[in-house]
Each structure stands twice: as structure tokens, then as C-alpha cells.
Design brief:
Elements: H1 2-33, H2 48-75, H3 86-113, H4 126-160, E1 165-167, E2 170-171, H5 172-183, E3 187-189, E4 194-196, H6 200-220, H7 224-245
Antiparallel strand pairs: 1-2, 3-4
Helix pairs in contact: 1-2, 1-4, 2-4, 3-7, 4-5, 4-7, 5-6, 6-7
Length: 247
């Protein structure tokens, strides 16, 4: 009985601490991004949101790296900021990239056949397309993977002092990190408590890819490969969306 109570307490502690760290880094990034003016006389030419989200993620990444530096000094833990097992990392990167390409083709083909329209909040011109794809390729993966993968998984190991295997090579900490990553794709407010989301698909996609990236992180002992896969996943999904919207 004591063991179960202790596990529950540790689990709740992990969720609270991980959530606070993620929310703090994200809020800091948003606060800095809001300091800049984004008024654009011709929004049709360039969407100011691309600048905002780029600054937000860069500052969020810097805040996360600062937190990692502190945690490393206190707990002497490795957050995977290295190449790790290169052979395994390259293998999984190639396999998952191929799967993502086929998935994107299938997904958008079905959407196209069902005559589902592709609607964007910005004009599909060269500036916006290159700008948003550039953000996804260079910023999204590195900034989000260290915050939503490296920190929670390592934090779980610090709190529980061990990895908890579930099944099929998937650990509890990977699933927990993926759930937190999925929740980050919702509109969550604590005071007052409110939670909503734009679509269920994004929530499920974030959960599944989060588990895959987490498994690869643990198998390679490196966050570099999940960073790449996160970025390339976004580029593939957004890029194919552009292509099918123009057909």
C-alpha cells in the first residue's frame, strides 16, 4: 500500500514539475516575442505570425537550455545533447522519414479525394511558404524536443530513479512525456481552468509521434535524432499540405 501511495505521489510530482517547466519556458518565449511589433502594412505579402512564432521558439529554446544547465549541475544527468548511438539513430531516422512521407501522401490524398479544402490563415506566396517551412525545419524540432522530450523523460528518471518499461520497447516516461506534449497542443488555462483544442487529429498525431520520438531518444541516448524527425515531420506535413492545396 505504501509503495502504491509513494508511486502516485511521485507521479503527481513529476507531472506538476514537468508542466511548470514547460509552461514557464513557453510563457517566457511568448513574453519576449510580444515585445516586438508585428504590424505589417501588407499582410498578404508576409504573415507577421511567422516572425512571432520564430522568436517565441528561439527564446523558449534558450530558456530550456538554461533549465537543463541547472538540472545537469544539480543532478549530474545527461539530457542527450550529443550524437549518441549514431548507427541506430541514422537507421531510425531513415525508416521513420520514409514512413512519414508515405503517411503524408496517404493522408492528403484521402483529403483531396473527399474534397476537403485546405485553408490557411496566410497567403500562400513565396515569402510565407519559405518562411514557415524554414521555421519548421530549423526551429521547431530543436526547441520543442529538448523541452517536451529531453527534460520530462530525464526528470522522470530523476524522480523515480529508474525507467519503467511498459511493452514493445515503450517506457512509462516516454508515454508521460508524449501526453504532456499532446496537451501542449491544446488551449489550456489554469485560472480559470479551461481546456479546448482546434482538432482531435493534431492531439492524436502529437501523442503518437511523441511516443515514437521518445523511444528513439532512449534507444539512441541522443535528442539529436528526435530533433531531426520532429522538424522533418513538420516540413513533410506542411509541405504536402501546400502542394495539395495548389492542385
Amino acid at each position: 500500500m505504501r509503495s502504491k501511495v509513494k508511486t502516485v505521489i511521485l507521479g503527481i510530482s513529476f507531472i506538476i514539475i514537468a508542466f511548470v517547466i514547460q509552461k514557464t519556458a513557453s510563457t517566457f518565449g511568448g513574453w519576449i516575442a510580444d515585445l516586438f511589433a508585428y504590424d505589417n502594412n501588407d499582410v498578404e505579402k508576409f504573415d507577421p505570425y511567422i516572425i512571432w512564432i520564430t522568436i517565441h521558439h528561439i527564446m523558449m529554446m534558450l530558456a530550456t537550455l538554461f533549465i537543463i544547465m541547472i538540472l545537469k549541475r544539480i543532478f549530474k544527468k545527461d539530457f542527450g545533447l550529443k550524437l549518441g548511438n549514431r548507427k541506430t539513430g541514422v537507421k531510425y531516422s531513415i525508416i521513420v522519414t520514409i514512413i512519414l512521407i508515405f503517411y503524408a501522401l496517404l493522408f492528403y490524398s484521402i483529403m483531396y479525394l473527399l474534397n476537403q479544402s485546405f485553408i490557411y490563415d496566410y497567403s500562400l506566396n513565396a515569402q510565407n511558404i519559405v518562411g514557415y517551412l524554414g521555421f519548421q525545419l530549423f526551429i521547431s524540432g530543436p526547441s520543442e524536443e529538448i523541452l517536451f522530450r529531453a527534460i520530462p523523460i530525464t526528470l522522470f528518471l530523476i524522480i523515480f530513479r529508474r525507467s519503467i518499461h511498459i511493452k514493445w520497447g515503450i517506457s512509462l516516461e516516454v508515454v508521460m512525456a508524449a501526453l504532456l506534449f499532446s496537451i501542449a497542443h491544446t488551449n489550456l488555462s489554469l485560472i480559470p481552468f479551461q481546456i479546448s483544442l482546434d482538432n482531435w487529429y493534431q492531439l492524436i498525431y502529437a501523442l503518437i509521434t511523441g511516443i515514437v520520438f521518445g523511444v528513439i531518444y532512449q534507444k539512441t541516448d541522443s535528442i539529436i535524432y528526435p530533433m531531426y524527425l520532429h522538424s522533418i515531420s513538420n516540413v513533410i506535413m506542411v509541405g504536402f499540405g501546400y502542394i495539395f492545396s495548389m492542385i
